[in-house]
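Entry 14. Structure prediction run on the chain below.
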Amino acid sequence: FILLQREGNDNTSKVFAKDLLNQGPAWDIYLFYEKGLTWEALPPKPTEWMHQLSGGRRADPAHFHTGADLVEQLHEAMHKVTRAKCAQP
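Output returned:
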């Protein structure tokens, strides 16, 4: 499912980005989780993730994608976690 969360204090952003970002808050991040993961008080580490944060400086640049590259990476991550046969974007 897709979650869009906006709030004035960035609490949700801080929880999800805690171990992923060099500097918060997080927006324009995409997190993918394998089916069946157990969620405790904090969310588990995502199976795949990517971001569009400040040219890749606020988080691991290996996960920075934009434009057509972002579309391709989103497609690959969705395929990986759903194991569905998908048409190429």
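The longest helix spans residues 67-82.
Filed with the rest of this week's runs.
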